[in-house]
Amino acid sequence: MTTRRSFLCSPRRSLCALLLYGFAGIAGSAFAADRVIVLDSAEAQLTLIDQATHKVVDTLPTGKEPHHLMITPDHESLIVANSVSNSLMFIDPRTGQLQRRMEGVDDPYQLGFSPDHRWFVTAALRLNRVDIYRYDGHNMTVAKRIPIGKTPSHLDFSSDGKTVFVTLQDSGELAAIDLATQTIAWRMPVGNAPAGLWMTPGDQYLLVGMTGEDDVAVVDWRKRQVVKRIPTGRGAHNFRSLDDGRHVAASNRVSNTISIIDYIDLTKTRDITGLLPGPDDMELTADRKFLWVTFRFARHVGVIDMNTYTLVDTIRVGRSPHGIYFSNRAPVLGPNPD
Amino acid sequence: MINEAINALEDGIASLQTLLYVDAVQPLLYRLGLMGYDEDTYDALYWVIVGVLQIVVMYVVLRPLEAWFPAESWQDRKATRVDVLYTWIAKLGVFNVTFFFLLQPGFDRLQSLMAIHSVPDIQFDGLWPGVTDGPLVSFLIYLVALDFAGYWYHRWQHRFGVWWELHAVHHSQRQMSLWTDDRNHVLDTMIQAAFFAALSLFIGVEPGQYVVLVAVGNLLQSVQHVNARVRFGRVLERVLVSPSFHRRHHAIGYGHEGTRYGCNFGVLLPWWDMLFKTASWNSAQEPTGIRDQLPPPQGRSRDYGDGWWHQQAAAIARISRRLFPAR
Questions:
Q1: How many CB atoms lie within 10 A of CB A231?
Q2: Residues in chain A within 8 Å Cβ distance of B124
Q3: pLDDT tens for residues B193-210?
């Protein structure tokens, strides 16, 4: 099934939507938990999809180039990072409605909270910088802006909240920043166009999606060594833990596949094929039955049945869909922003 | 119905974009180790396709109008042929987009330094969050802002002698047609592209929106040069620059006289001509071109060149003579 979006007349004001919102007010989160939020990065908007029917129910304006999103530690807000508008939007994670805005956050391409919730970190991909903010549970205040290598793109943290790791896409490096002192602890080469980062349980290894290669690099970050490369597919990009105690999914943006990686054996167990071009960010339903994925180069979101590992539905969204979120998701293993 | 047609068109462009990207461009980027440009290249491809479509639409819609309702009757269209080449170069946005991306790192660095030193930056669309940053509203704000700059840019093209010699390449077309808009000296095109890219970055236009602004501007300006009797009516011609309004600007002795006199400088909106008292609403047909192209006694049969190279070189020669006059 493919859901079409009206170009001139957004369905946001339709009678149906109004009735549904009215009902949402009465039924509260029982209803509202059904919204899938997708960031259409090239259209300055987010698309809201009904998770049960897979129908687009609304599109809402964002700032320019919203790429990534992140739930706040209290789960009350979803932060949409408008990278070119230099702003953050706090929206209701269940309905997508705007709660508040925060201006003056420079080029927030990727974002994340440290596991101890003391720090909020943004990767300014365009500006070659990582900015560290102090977080007081509501507001962020700049602690330090750190010029770093070329195009910092993805972030992950050590469980103790002391270190943030960042991939430097065009420098081909992985960097570690000490959060207490806000200084670069080290940088190490990892290969061509490193992107997504995922920390294995126990903080043993960092998995790095190598978008310019066909593998996931396994980094022993304490020794600063690439200890293994797991062949996945060309354009390995981002990760989503599968909440089964053993596996993590990795999207391959050139091969157009998703690889399932056994993070204990550090091997690939299978590929999900038959996808649309440019699989990017992923989100897993709470029952672990369906993996939702944005297809960056096909203006669609896909739904994958995780029993049969097949694509069972595609939904038309806006241009360059990137970040995706829904509130009744499976727990994210590890402090992995997505 | 309209929605469905636009959706179908959007789908068609998107499918073509995906097909070209996945099967041709992305494998090349991967092989060349340029995957850092993955997303930007994919997004840019959309606008290249839109540029090609624009030329097709221009030709399909405007060419029949020129055949059926010509403003001027010509023996043949030979003189318009070179303008087709100019159009292909310009309509694909090659110069504009190149400059935008070339200048972007410098502006990003400037923005970063401004943030580090707590200097506020300018983002027109951020003036009223929730209103001015909506896609349509911000698009219109930037369109008006850039058009205002365009009006003054155009006045300066006529005001300063050296610049006029470059702009004369555009005005030397005496058979003004749908292809004429992009007939410009390559230096003029580059100065213009750099000027508008820099201004757009300064006031906060995002890359995707910039390409749309360029595309919309290009299309409207092609309409302005069409050799057809297209009337906008009293109201619309005061909102948008009409073909007769712009044809007046090209009229020898009425619309301009080299650097000495000019009217109707507006690029897309005639508002600035009205505001600064340079508007002429007289729609009488007059020959277009530059006075010294005319045979004596009105002119001196000056040759501005036939082909692309000739026109480009002749402009440089005129500039040299202006800068270093023979004693």
A1: 13
A2: none
A3: 788 877 887 777 766 677
Most A-contacting residue of B1, B39, B212, B213 (CB-CB within 10 A), to test interface? B39
pLDDT of residue A269: 97
B interface residues, A as partner, C-beta within 8 Å: 2-3, 6-7, 10, 14, 18, 21-22, 26-27, 30, 33, 35-36, 38-39, 42-43, 46, 104, 108-109, 111-112, 115-116, 121, 123, 125-126, 129-130, 133-135, 206-209
- Could you identify the residue written with the tokens 């972007």? B104
Residue type, B229: R
**Which residues form the domain of A59?**
11-326
Contact between residue A300 and residue A332 where contact means Cβ atoms under 8 Å apart: no
Q: Which residues pair with A121 in a beta bridge?
A: A112, A132
In a domain, A4, yes or no: no
pTM for the whole structure: 0.73
Q: How many domains does chain A have?
A: 1
- What residue ranges of chain B have pLDDT lower than 50? none
Is the confidence metric ipTM above 0.85 for this complex? no
Say how many CA atoms lie within 13 Å of B173 toward its Cβ: 31
pLDDT in tens, A295-318: 999 999 999 999 999 999 999 999
Query: With pLDDT > 70 as the criterion, what percentage of chain A qualifies?
Result: 88
User: Cα(B12)–Cα(A336) distance, rounded to whole angstroms?
Assistant: 37
CATH number for the domain that contains residue A214: 2.130.10.10
Using alpha carbons, select from B238, B180, B274 the residue that is nearest to residue B263.
B274
d(CA A301, CA A314): 6
